Amino acid sequence: MAIQFLILAAGLLLILMGANYLVEGSSGIARKFGISEFVIGLTIVGIGTSTPEMVVSFISSLNGNADMAIGNIVGSNIFNTLLILGTTALISPLIITQSNKKRDIPMNIIVTVLLVVLGMKKSIFGLGENSLTRVDGAVLLVLFAWYLYSSFKYSSKTDDEQESVNVKPVWLSSIMILGGLAALIFGGRIFVSSATELARIFGVSDKFIAITIMAGGTSMPELATCVVAALKGKGQLALGNILGSNVSNILLILGGSALINPLSFKGMTMVDLGVLLGSSLFILLSAYMFRKNKLDRIEGGILLIAEIAYMWFLIVNV
After folding, report:
1. C-alpha dist (Å) from residue 277 to 53, 117, 176, 310
2. Which of 2-11, 128-137, 230-239 has the largest mean confidence?
3. 107, 171, 301, 304: which has the fewest Cβ within 10 Å?
């Protein structure tokens, strides 16, 4: 057991190192090509830090373990919003732009609602089964392609990103991004593997492992990236990372997983999905609460309290 804890620590160290290089490299690319840091966070960083979730969910789908595939994504998105955005906002309040309010945050909500509707169509409409079919998966993947296209099409640097800075060469920024992603992915896999082994030793269910240990582990890259971004004063990169990761998790990862094998939602409860939807709605509400157009420290505290309450609910109902 001691060895598993050492492996856990090694994975976390790799994740932290990878996050630092990923943020620096991505910011360099954004400045070089006139792409906003938010869009870089939404796409390159968001998708890149979702790679551990992709590996876990695709393998779980191939093995016919829908609880692990879906629980990993639902748990990761909840973890991303409640714990990671909450922690990031406590470190440094995040500005919510008009573009975030009109397009990016609503997209996160729409995609989450779509997942609930498609996955729980029998419970909601009395149609089919509570599952994501291959057709559902194809629809999600088509939406993901459109999402990427529209993100870059409407990308532009905001005034606060036009500062005069020493821009790293593209080749160096690219190496930093690839090296950062490699460290994040490898570190994430080590972390998840050791965390899962420890969970097995203590004898808990697949769903509990997926929605807590596995989801938290595969979301470590997002956590590390957002904390580093917040400390470096790159709030839009952090916000873009979480929104991009959440949307990518649903459209790309669950879409691809459902194409591999239809995914049953029988392991999901309305509490799990309700927390998922509620957390995405809270980001929009934050733009109008307390200090407008900011995810402030008060909202960050609320998000963290909600995460603790949800984890307590899961532990009590194991």
Report:
1. 19, 11, 34, 13
2. 128-137
3. 171
Helical pair 235-248 and 2-33, crossing angle rounded to 10 deg: 110
CA distance 14 to 29: 22
Whole-structure pTM value: 0.76
pLDDT in tens, 144-179: 889 878 877 765 544 344 444 456 788 888 898 888
Residue 115, both tokens = 């997942």
Q: Is the pLDDT of residue 58 over 50?
A: yes
| Residue 263: strand pairing partners | 132
